[in-house]
Design goal:
Layout: H1 2-27, H2 35-55, E1 58-63, E2 72-75, H3 81-87, E3 92-97, H4 107-112, E4 116-118, H5 125-138, E5 142-145, H6 166-171, E6 175-183, H7 190-197, H8 206-215, E7 219-225, H9 235-253
Parallel strand pairs: 1-7, 2-5, 2-6, 3-4, 3-5
Antiparallel strand pairs: 6-7
Length: 259
């Protein structure tokens, strides 16, 4: 049964990815900073993400309202599932580490959908990434930044790195924040299962992890949107304020596995 479920989902993911690829390919002939191209990318990513949530059995528990004003959105980072969870609720582009482009099945799609890549081994990539972030914000497209710099198992929120908040600080864009978490089941012993099978962190291989995830009957995700955006011209101070806000959301909204 597990193999059948996984196979059906892989086929379904391939089909919806192909449907999403066509309009993205059409607008890819436009300049990289074209507002039509960027807005189309964010819309297709939203529709694709909603379809993916249904295919993989992701039940969303959304608290608060997604931001409507263009700006930067900062959240904690647990898994590649974070992308479809957030994109299913808001039109946006993402900032991601450069190896995401090589992920099987979804890597090329999220690349052509307008993802901004940062190479952690090359500090010179940061100014290029910030310029791409600026272009998306100028085209009325919000940008999601996972400011921890790495995914975790969710026990805590790592300190936020201020470097990718440069454009928000320099041009006074609002920075919204959110908190996300996952749960396979309510039983207490499933907290560890969630950390291993949904969260993708440490040395876990991508292919094996996603194949295991696709075999699960389903799981739940909680996405909490903050009440109001933050602004600031000091990116370090802004990063600290955002970290405190997300950490407070973790304390308030983290799943109770014994409920």
């Amino acid at each position: 049964m597990l193999h059948v479920r996984r196979a059906i989902r892989i086929v379904a993911l391939a089909l919806v990815s192909l449907l999403g690829y066509v309009p993205l390919l059409v607008v890819s002939v436009l300049p990289a900073d074209s507002s039509i191209r960027l807005r189309t990318q964010s819309l297709v990513l939203m529709l694709w993400s909603r379809a993916v949530c249904r295919i993989i059995g992701l039940e969303r528990d959304v608290i608060g309202q997604a931001p409507t004003e263009t700006g930067v959105f900062v959240a904690n980072h647990l898994s590649y599932v974070d992308i479809v969870l957030i994109a299913s609720e808001m039109r946006t582009a993402f900032v991601a580490k450069s190896d995401v482009r090589h992920w099987p099945l979804v890597g090329h799609l999220v690349t052509i959908a307008g993802t901004v890549y940062v190479d952690r081994q090359r500090h010179r990539s940061l100014p290029v990434a910030n310029a791409s972030i600026r272009a998306r914000l100028a085209a009325d497209t919000s940008v999601v930044v996972f400011a921890e710099g790495s995914s975790t198992a969710g026990e805590s929120v790592l300190p936020f790195r201020p470097s990718l908040l440069q454009m928000a600080a320099e041009f006074d864009y609002p920075v919204n924040h959110g908190y996300l978490s996952y749960r396979i089941d309510t039983a207490a012993d499933n907290e560890a299962r969630t950390a291993d099978q949904i969260c993708w962190w440490g040395d876990a291989g991508f292919a094996a992890h996603i194949l295991n995830l696709l075999a699960l009957p389903g799981f739940a995700a909680r996405l909490v949107f903050g009440d109001a955006p933050l602004r600031g011209t000091d990116r370090k101070q802004l990063a600290e304020q955002l970290h405190s806000a997300v950490d407070a959301q973790l304390g308030k909204y983290r799943w109770n596995f014994e409920a």
